[in-house]
Every structure is written in C-alpha cells, then in structure tokens.
Amino acid sequence: MYDSSGDEQTHVVTAFLRNRGEILMLRRSDAVGTYTGQWGGVSGFAAGDPDTQVRTEIREETGLEAGDDVSLTRSGQPVRFEDATLEREWVVHPYLFDCETRDIDLSAEHDAFEWASPTVILDPDDDREPVPELWTAYERVAPTVRSITADGEHGAAYLSSRALEVLRDRAAVATAERAEFGTDPDGEWDELAELAGRLLETRPSMAVLRNRVNRAMSRAVDADPDATGAPAILDATLAGLERALAADDDAAATASEHIDGAVATLSRSDTVLEAIRGGDPSRVFVAESRPAREGIDVAEDVAAADDLDCPVTVHTDAAAAHVLSSEAVDRVVVGADTIRPDGSVVNKTGTRTLALAAAREGIPVSVVAATDKISTREAVNLESGDRSAVYDGDADLDVLNPTFDVTPADCIDGFVTERGVLEPTEIDDVVAELRAFEGWTDR
User: What is the full DSSP assignment across 338-404?
Assistant: First the structure.
C-alpha cells in the first residue's frame, strides 16, 4: 500500500496494454481480495513509486517485460473515488503501454483475459462487468487531438490509428449517453463531425490520417444517411481500424517478397520494419535519422528479430551517399508519410538524399505504404522540428530543421501497397477513389 499523504487513501496502479487498437482486459480471480469476477487492466497496490510498481505488475501478471515487450506511451493524472461498500478511497494511477504481442502468461490474480476495444467498458450489453471507474482511468491516458499533434516519434500509419481511436472513443461515450440524455443524432453528428475536422488537420503532412478519418465518416453516412449518429460512427471507426491494420499488414507482406540481398533504409516505418522482418535480407543498412535518431531503434529491432540472421549496420545520415556508392546495396526500401498525386513522396528528411544517391548508383528504390497514404491534395505542408535540436547556442543564426522532404517520382521504381506494386502512373486512380470519401463534410 502506498500512502504519500498520511490519509486513508489506497494507491493502486492500472496499466492498459494496447495492441492493434485493442486493450488487454483481465478478469479478477478468487485469489484477489476486491472486485472478484470483474474486468480491468493490469493493476496492483502501489507499494512504492507508481512508475516503478506498474512495470512490476506487468511482469508479474502477464509475463511481459517493460522495455522489451511493452513500451510506455502515456501516464495520466490519478483517478480518485470512494467505494462506500469497501469503506475505502482509491487513488488509481493510470498508464498506457503499447504491446508488441498478444501472448501473455496469466498470473493467479486473473482467470481469463481478452483483447477488446476499450469501448466495451461503456457497452451495457457487454457481459464483462468492469471494475469501478475503469473508463475514467482509460480516458486519462487515451489518445487525444493534442497527443497526436505533439507526437514526434511515431510514423503516419501509427498516428492514423490513434486518430481513429480518438473518434471511436468519443462516439462510444456519445452512444452510452443516450441512456441518460436520449437520442439526438443531429447533435451527436455535430459534435463528432467537429472532432473529425480537428483530427483532419492535426498532422497536415500525413495524408493517411486524413484518408482514414474521411473513410470512417463517409462510411458512417452511407450506413445511416438520414440521421447519422454516434452508433454509426462508432461502428465505422471500429471497422476502419480493422481495415487500416490489415492494409498495413498486407503492404508489409507484399514488400517482404521483394526484400532479399542487401537493403538500405532510414527513419522508422513500422510497415517497412515488418517487411524487413518478413523478408530475406542478407544485410541491412540503416541511417540514424537525426535529430530523433529513430533509425537506431529500427536497427536494434532488426538485429533482435528472431527470424533474421543478417548483419545490421547503422550509419550517419550524411554518409548515405557514401554507403550506397561503396557497399553492395541491392535495394533502398523506405516508407512514406504521404504520396502526392504526382507520385512524389513526402517522408522523413533524408529520404530525398538517399533516393537521389540510389538513382546515381542504379539502385532501385521501393516505397512501402498502404494506398491510404496517397494524398488528394497537390500541396503538402512540410512540418519542421524544434530549432534547438540543431542549434541551441547564443549566436544570431537562422536554423533550418525540416522534418520532412520531398522525393521526386522519377527517383522511385515502385510503390509496394496492399494492392500489389503500383507504378507512379497508377496513382491517379487511387486519388479519385480517396476524394470520394471527402464528401461527408457536405452532409
């Protein structure tokens, strides 16, 4: 028990483990003293520092190691509530972790587990009774418009899923509120359409986020044209998440068939990473990708992959052209934050340099991305990073720290997607398809 204030409060930690848009739900067994038979996240008494204790609970209750199998995404402000039946005041410290696997080893504290959308917590028809204030704890760490805007670590596909989760979660709340406030499809639409509009502009360089939000809203309108309300949007976002994850998986699977020999890449694209893991590379070169150096994480992930046995080499961004000219590289494989209608690619700064160097050396360049990353807009706003990441001295200097650059279409040999390998000239058909989803704003 953790009591930092000397009162009768009981401090506990609750961790939500997220995988593919769903969270791990655990049913409390007879071995625990409270809320037996109810469902919650990984939880336990905070016998010391909650930040340390939550990792201990994850290891003990699931067999997963924080830092290897799970990584902290967010922690939230504590949830305080009183349980009159137990005569106890709880202080719940919530955490959200991204989880690499769904395979867990249950401890005796739980007798069942399921991966489910967190929205089941609010569903009165769901037969899993949640522990008290579970949704409140989840909301403290759930993705938000602000967290998506501020995220400088993850790629576009990841953030598009987070955007769908934001819309899904709010649609679930509005659906649950019908029991108390009645049905108001027009009011629900106005609220959720406004939220969708804000999500569309969180990351202006990432077409995939806009396309996936637009598709969900368009499908909701198609399902209930006359009175599109929260339940239709909830269903559409749930289906949209499933479709988005499948598209990314299929793009990676297609790309893996083309990965053999020595490959070079940069930055972090989860789709490219999965393609490399599923391929048969003889060697992998990874540019470190300053300033965040996310390429280092990619290199470590490839080196640690159980099903790969090839050397992995990390190099500075400035050495990219030198590496391609001096090493026997067979293919450059990169992701995309956005594919413009003309076939040019917006991606992490350094992609253009790598592609131009590859063209000089006659090395093919493959862009691995789901078709949702194709933009319907001709112009793309290129984001910039913090100037202090480049220079934080006192001299009167202008600083450039572009986060993205544009690689010309004629430097790209093919787009590897869930639909197969597309040539740059085939982009127009996908653009027309995606533009059709933008009509929901006229409802």
Answer: EE-TTS-EEEETTHHHHHHHHHHHT--EEEE--GGGB-S-S--PPPB--GGGT--SSS------BSE
Mean pLDDT of 59-79: 91
**DSSP-assigned beta bridge partners for residue 82:** 89
Q: In this model, does residue 4 exceed pLDDT 50?
A: no
Q: How many angstroms separate the CA atoms of 420 and 434, rounded?
A: 18
Hey, which residues are catalytic here? 337
- Helix/strand/coil (H, E, C) string of 131-156? CCCHHHHHHHHCCCHHHHHHCCCCCH
* Phi, psi for 286 (deg, rounded to 5): -130, 120
- Model confidence over 200-226: pLDDT tens digits? 999 887 899 999 999 999 999 999 888
Is-contact 150 159, C-beta < 8 A? no
d(CA 257, CA 243): 22
CB 248 within 8 A of CB 228: no
3-state secondary structure of 82: strand
Residues forming CATH 1.20.120 domain(s) in the chain: 146-249
Tell me: pLDDT of 14 over 50: yes
For range 74-103, the mean pLDDT: 95
Architecture of domain 146-249: Up-down Bundle (1.20)
Query: What's the DSSP call for residue 198?
Result: H
In 3D, which of 369, 363, 330, 329 has the Cα closest to residue 347?
369
Structure-token pair, residue 314: 């990390």
Give the contacts of 277 (CB within 8 A, at least 6 positions apart): 256, 302, 305, 307, 308
Residue 163's nearest CA partner among 205, 191, 200, 118 is 200
Sign for the CA dihedral angle at 333, 336, 340, 346 comes to negative
CATH class of 9-141: alpha beta
- How far is Cα 145 from Cα 2, in angstroms, rounded to an integer? 33
One-letter identity of residue 415: F
Q: Which helix (H) or strand (E) holds 252?
A: helix 230-256
Please check the confidence at residue 227 and state whether its pLDDT lies above 80. yes
Q: Which CATH superfamily is domain 251-378+400-436 in?
A: Translation initiation factor eif-2b; domain 2 (3.40.50.10470)
The segment(s) of the chain belonging to CATH 3.40.50.10470 are 251-378+400-436
